[in-house]
Amino acid sequence: MSIWIRVILYLVAAPVVGCLLSGWDRRITARMQARQGPPILQPFYDVQKLWRKENIVVRQSQNIYIFFFLLLVIFTGALFFAGSDLLLVIFALTLAAIFFVLGAYKASSPYSFIGAERELIQIMAYEPMVLLTAIGMYIATKSFSVDDIATHPTLLVLVLPGVFLGFLYTLEIKFRKSPFDLSCSHHAHQELVRGITTEFSGRTLAMIEIAHWFETVFLLGWVYLFFASVPVLGVVVSLMVFVFVILVDNVFARLKWQTAIRSAWLVTIVLGFGNILILSLLKHFH
Amino acid sequence: MTLILSLILVPLVAGLGLLCLKTDGLRRILAAAVTLAVCVGVIALAAWPAAPDLRGALESHWIDWGILALEVVMSVYIIYVGLRAKSPLIVLLALVQMVVMAWFELTPRAHPMETRNLFVDNLAVIMALINGLVGGGICIYALGYMREYHEVAHPEVKDRRPLFFSLLFVFMGAMFGLIFANNLTWLFLFWEITTLCSFLLIGYTQTDEALRNARRALVMNLAGGLAFALAIVWCYQRIQSIELQALIGSKQSLVLLPAALLCFAGITKSAQLPFSSWLLGAMVAPTPVSALLHSSTMVKAGVYLVLRMAPAITGTKVGMMVAMVGGVTFVIGSLAAITTSEAKRVLAWSTIANLGLIVLCGGIGTYEAMWAGVLLIIFHAVSKCLLFLCVGAVEHKLHSRNIEDMSGLILRMPRVAVMMLIGMAGMFLAPFGMLISKWAVLKAVVDAEPMLSVFIVFGSSATLFFWVKWMGKLLEVVIPAEPEQQEFAPSEGVALYSLAAATFLTCLLFPLISSRLVEPYVMEVYHKTASLSPGNIIIMMIMMALVMLFPLSFIRYGRGVRVVDAYLGGANVNRSVSFLGSANAVEDVTMHNYYLRGLLSESWLSRWGVAGSAVFLAIMVGVAFL
User: Fold this and answer.
1) Can you give the residue range of the structural domain that contains B236?
2) Is the ipTM value over 0.85, yes or no?
3) How many independent structural domains does chain A possess?
4) What single DSSP character describes residue A183?
5) List of chain A residues whose C-beta atoms are within 8 Å of the C-beta of residue B446
6) Which residue(s) pair with B118 in the sheet?
7) What's the pLDDT tens digit per position in B582-607?
8) Is the peptide bond before B274 cis (omega within 30 degrees of 0)?
9) Do B523 and B431 share a domain, yes or no?
10) Do A101 and B468 make contact, defined as CB atoms within 8 angstroms?
């Protein structure tokens, strides 16, 4: 499939799939809590309604940052599905995340400020493992290109089991799900209020939601890469990972940020770096 | 040839001239003229590269004697400083160094040698461009800054501006000498001049703290100087030559010891752990000095030497240890920068960390690492210089260099704040230069030694934390402030605007810089080179275009939105500034950044960083001796 077709397919399909996944997320969560839950399309109705609301801000430029956040998240996903360099994809993702954080700083309310600081801590917690994942894939396939990694004949998860587990751990942080919903609580009655998104409303809040749809699809796409040599397995595992993340969200209470960063770094060193260490030692002996 | 000599001599002579000029007006004219001449000179050098072979040129016993005499004079002065400060260590280091050099120069040579004293290659051209353009910018900035420094901000400090500007230009001239020298004794002379200049500049204000820190810088750099002197002796003994090019071209096993000693010298000068404390102490000096030490001269001389040694140590245990020192420094420096709120200290730690990355590249020493290392030098110089100069401008208006006090700077000093944001983005964000270089480093490291990548992944995520929270502090506004009447003096403006433009330009011209300057150099040394693939360059350019759209989108500023007060958890009393707290008390809103001091402590980090890197350094020297 040519690059452009893939990119266009991604641009059309990702929001739909992301929206559906988000709907299932709420439904599954509700069932786990013995509730009925909203219809699957509820996230879409929410966004539709938010889009028509008045735009209320604290600082006049705060929404511009969020627009660029959305733009760059879409760009990141497009890079990924176009099959380009994995490191470049990570850098684009980081740039997107930073626009989000800067928007929250700009909003200048105490709650969005705390959210921004904590979001930065979360980025600092997951970034090393995300980079190590790319490095692990490079060692296994001799290429950083998503295309080459996806078409590599070996089942990567067998070579990179530690990296895979580490990546799962950081995925929890990236999704801002409990126990790592430090920066952005989903329940606005808590001490954080709504954290990083406190001062965003209307269309801008809808953009954050849409960015989340794109991000979900892209991150599950990355999970797929570990199983890319057996496509069916890849899709099944990606969906299982998604359900697993929801399960964890419902089972655990929020951790302190100190615990979050310490544990994430420990996991990165033991599972991620340990895996890479063993791989490169094996290479030395061969 | 004439061009190279004049690049070295014009700033040196101008420096001596400035020492005698007491009036500000004449000083401004002379300084501006010399800076302009130097800038034209380095651009000419880059545009029409000189023939690299300068054999036979400048060979005269008189010059050799002159150099020895200058070295002895400097050593005697340093010994005098040491005696006055009652510091036996300074005296001892300077004395041993002087004796070694005098003994080496005065013993009749068993093998008569023909030495090419000067040399130009692409790396030298790159360094000259940085020294000339960035260093020149700092000199211009200093004209406005120092006037305000003495007349408004610090009237208590004795006005010794003639000495100050004289030292700036001598420093610049010495740096040119260091870059173009091929004869190691010449290189050593210029090396020592930069050590002495930095000592005098750090101690400029003559306060107890300044003098103490200046002496610390002197001791550490003298230790490096001693290693340098020993390296010259060993180099001659091993290969009967004291040419830099000969040293690099010789068989690795033969020159490993002198190369290791030169790396040691480079590591002291580039303030790597365990020697980083001198650079942290150096921030007591006026801001242009910090900018000079951190971006275009001094520390860049250190990494320049390490990169020069890279072919001689690549693949050896010495190289591995150098890389470890760099790696440890990168992680420790980045983490330490999180814990401090003082702007200059954050910048200092960040410099130390980024130089660590360059040293890491030098230690790995493959062609990919070399490409990445040279790119890092270029991009770091521009962005870091811009940041220091911005902090200097802010300090004069806010009378503080605490990042917490910079809250709302975007309203109070919009121009400086925007330039600071550009500088910071240049330091760590895609698609700016430093990030491209870090990417290159990561690739080089994974190809050569995947284990070392652990330093980079942790270090760079810490980097992100402290830069973004600083950016956030500039953007966030609690109490809207009126803009300052005049944010900076005209000469400061010239430097700030051109450096901010340079941050963008170096990034846009990146493919050109890489293919015209960096790749030919790597090709020369390794016969193969790394580069960024065209596809990735296009993606970077798209990202650049997206980022450029961001300022444009401020046309939409304030349109279609309704401004309300922030949610404060209690009833807002005065807009978003204060609110009703418990028991109806009116509380002010305060927001402070996280410094993670419960998780990381600066002293703990430095202690362990010093211990760890000292072990690696000891192993490095030990391995080289065996």
Assistant:
1) 1-313
2) yes
3) 1
4) S
5) 135, 138-139
6) B181
7) 888 888 888 899 999 888 899 999 99
8) yes
9) yes
10) yes
